[in-house]
Amino acid sequence: MNEFDADWERLLKTTEPAGQRTFTPRHMLQIEREAKGMNEKRNRGSKRRVAAVLASALALIVLVMGVLPAGPYTGWLRDAESRTAGQPNEASTPGEVTPDEQPTPDGREEAIEPQPPAETEPLTGLLREQLPFVIDRQEGISIHRPDGGEDIDLSVMEQSYLMQSLYGLDFEKARAPMANNREDVYFRIRDGGKTFEIPYEVATNTILWKGQSFYANENTLLLMHRLFKPESKLAEIAAFRDEQQLAMERKEDTVNEGSYDAELLEVDGKLFPDWEREEAKLTPKEEIGYFDEMFGEARKVVVYEEGVIAMSLSYFFVDDRYRTSSGAGVGSTEAELLEKIGEPNSKSSVAWSYRWGDYLRVHFYMKDGKAALMYLTQPM
C-alpha cells in the first residue's frame, strides 16, 4: 500500500471517464476503515484548538519570535488571530483565549504539531518523503475554518482524494505562484495521537509547505469546491464524480457492447478534437490550476462564459444550449435519450455513456430522470 498502481490508473482513465483518478490503492484503506466502523459524520462543529493559558501563550511567542526565521512559514505555527497562512503573525495577547482556541466539547485539548520552518531554496523531490505522518496510517482528516465556521470531518472517500494528492505531489512539477495574501483553510491530519495541519487555499487549489506553494490535484480541487462553493458547477461535477464512484463500487453498471455512428454523438457538430480547436474561441471566466499526477505536470481547469468547462481531457456542457447531432443534451429525459440516441453502452443510476469506435465518448450525468450534465471525453 505504499505505491500507486499506474496500470489501474490508466485502465480507469480509458474505461470510466466519469471516475478518472478516483480509485487508487488508497481504497484498500477505505475497506479496512469501513470494516472497523469508522465514524464519518461531517460538520460535528468541534473546534479542536489548544486551550491557551499564560504559559503556553508565552511559549508560542518565544517560539515564533525567537526560533523561526523571518519571512513566511507554513501555518502549523500560527496564532488564533491568523487568517492568512504563509505570513509571519504576531502572537495573541498572553492569557487571552480566542474562539479558535476554545477546548473541545469533551474537555480534551488538541495540540497542533509544529511544521519545519520555511526554506528559501526551491524544494525538490516528493511531498510524501517529507511528511511527518504516515499516509496509509492516518486516523482521520478534518478541515479547519479559521473564519469561525464549523470544522468539517472528511469521509473515507474524501480522505482518499486528499491522501492521493499529498502522496503524488512532485515539488518541482506542481510548483505554483506564491500569492501575497492567502485565504486558507487547514487540513488537520491525525496520526499516532498527534495532529498535523497543512494550509490550503480554495481559490487557487494550492497547499503551503515550508513556505512554498504547490498545486493540489484535480480531485482535491473538486472536493473543496463541493464543500466550500456548493452552488458552483464544479461542485456539481464533484457530486457527480462521487456518486459515480459509489455506483462503480456497487457494481451496478450494465454494458451494451454495440457502437454508434460518430454523427449521432457530435456536440454542436463537433467531436473532441474539434472542441480542442473551438476552445480557443471561448471566453474564460475562471481558471484554476491543479497538478496532474498522470502526466506529471501542472494543468488548468477552465470555466468558460459560454457554459463549457474544460478539465482532465473532458469538455463539460452545463446548460441546454449544446446538443448532440441527434438532439440530446442537458435536460433530456431518459426516454428522450433512448429515442434520440438509443440504449447506452454503459449505464448506471448516475451516468449513461455512448461509444463510437472502441471508446466511450459522450456521457450524461443523470439526476431525477434527466441529464444534468453532458460531456465529451478523449480516450487515452
TrEMBL record:
Keywords tagged on the record: Membrane, Transmembrane, Transmembrane helix
Residue spans crossing the bilayer: 50-68
Source superkingdom: Bacteria
Region (Disordered): 81-124
Protein name (record): DUF4367 domain-containing protein
Organism: Paenibacillus xanthanilyticus
